[in-house]
Amino acid sequence: MPESIQSIDAILVDIPTIRPHQLSMTTMAVQTMVIVRIKDSSGLEGLGEATTIGGLAYGPESPESVKLTIDTYLAPLLLGQPAGNINTLKVRLNTSTRGNNLAKSAIETALLDLQGKRLNRSVSDLLGGAVHQHIPVLWTLASGDTAKDIDEAQSLIAAKRHCDFKLKIGSRALMDDVRHVAAIKAAVGDSASVRVDVNQAWDEATAARGMAELQAAGIDMVEQPTPMKDLAALVRLSEKFHLPILADEAVADATDMYRLACAGFAGAVALKIAKAGGPIQALKVANVASAAGVGLYGGTLLEGTIGSVAALHAWSTLDKIHWGTEMFGPLLMKDDIVVKRLNFHNNGVELPTGPGLGIEIDEDKLAYYRRK
Ligand code: MUC
Ligand code: MG
């Protein structure tokens, strides 16, 4: 008898951030994770996670809507079904429900974790095998204050925890942002890569001026300068500047990647399991990008340990991750709900070992931080 899916729980968990995290569209003081627990008829459990940034500030799914989608629509389609064939289960979900990739990413992750535990293989083994065990991770400076950001960067460089930095800009006047970025780049020096993420805040003309200034300041990459749906602006800017563009909000799934590449985009793409609908789906984006000569970057929606590890298993299977990753989400939160936290060292992180994701929930912490 194949094991069947017995229960699916979606739990809202709120953990304060270590400092305010300021982006162009919101400032975060807390991160909310939707933790998904899928149990099969043998008693094994798979873990998944969906997060986003600032409620509805980043995209059309909020943590609360992810929970509602799972409880009301996705779980009833999965309960009682054989647990062992993830592709069949995903076809079943996608035949009856559209979009909602964050919710589907949490479900796909939990099914992979469950499958790995049943077969005694890691999630990266299920995805074809890890090429990397230690994966580079940058840090985002987003305190909103130039001097604080410089202190933060210098202590992280000294501790060898991170050597590359992403700065969140776009909420201030252009030249204020440029001065902020240039001061940080001058303070950290040439050995650190400094990139910026504008989170769609600029129109094309502002972006053109901003990119010229940032290029002169020695910045290595500009992430999503213009609105996500304006693919033509992203293409024109990528033709105009040597400074590479990282497409983030513009590319969720493999079809988006294909359209942007066909439109003539050159640069790189932020892969995110949340945007794509799970680790398997995010690797499909990577395949299309690679075929089009677009560079790869392991992106985050500031997931906690479960979501970050799911992404790390996927990124570990990629031959080249040209721009590294930003899987630092667990470090932005004051606490964690797992027994063993990730091991960040030497400007990167160790891929956990063991069956499935290789993670165990700390039940006391989960009980403490779950939304009452
Ligand atoms: C984004 O837009 O890239 C990733 C790092 C960070 O600080 O925010 C995110 C989301
Ligand atoms: Mg981004």
How is this fold's topology laid out?
Layout: E1 5-22, E2 27-40, E3 45-51, H1 63-78, H2 86-96, H3 101-119, H4 123-126, E4 134-136, E5 139-141, H5 146-158, E6 164-168, H6 174-188, E7 193-197, H7 204-216, E8 221-223, H8 231-240, E9 245-247, H9 254-262, E10 268-271, H10 273-276, H11 279-291, E11 295-298, H12 305-316, H13 329-332, E12 344-345, E13 348-350, H14 363-369
Parallel strand pairs: 5-6, 6-7, 7-8, 8-9, 9-10, 10-11
Antiparallel strand pairs: 1-2, 2-3, 4-13, 12-13
The protein binds [(2S)-5-oxo-2,5-dihydrofuran-2-yl]acetic acid and magnesium ion.
Largest sheet: 7 strands, parallel
User: What is the count of structural domains?
Assistant: 2
- The H-level CATH homologous superfamily of the largest domain, spelled out, is Enolase-like C-terminal domain
Give the helix level as a range of percent: 40-55%
Report on the structure:
The longest helix has 19 residues, at 101-119. The chain folds into two domains: 5-121 and 362-369, 2-Layer Sandwich (Enolase-like, domain 1); 126-350, TIM Barrel, CATH 3.20.20.120. It has helices spanning 63-78, 86-96, 101-119, 123-126, 146-158, 174-188, 204-216, 231-240, 254-262, 273-276, 279-291, 305-316, 329-332, 363-369, and strands at residues 5-22, 27-40, 45-51, 134-136, 139-141, 164-168, 193-197, 221-223, 245-247, 268-271, 295-298, 344-345, 348-350. It is of the alpha/beta class. [(2S)-5-oxo-2,5-dihydrofuran-2-yl]acetic acid binds at residues 53, 140, 142, 168, 197, 199, 248, 299-302, 326. Residues 53, 140, 142, 168, 197, 199, 248, 299-302, 326 line the site of [(2S)-5-oxo-2,5-dihydrofuran-2-yl]acetic acid (MUC).
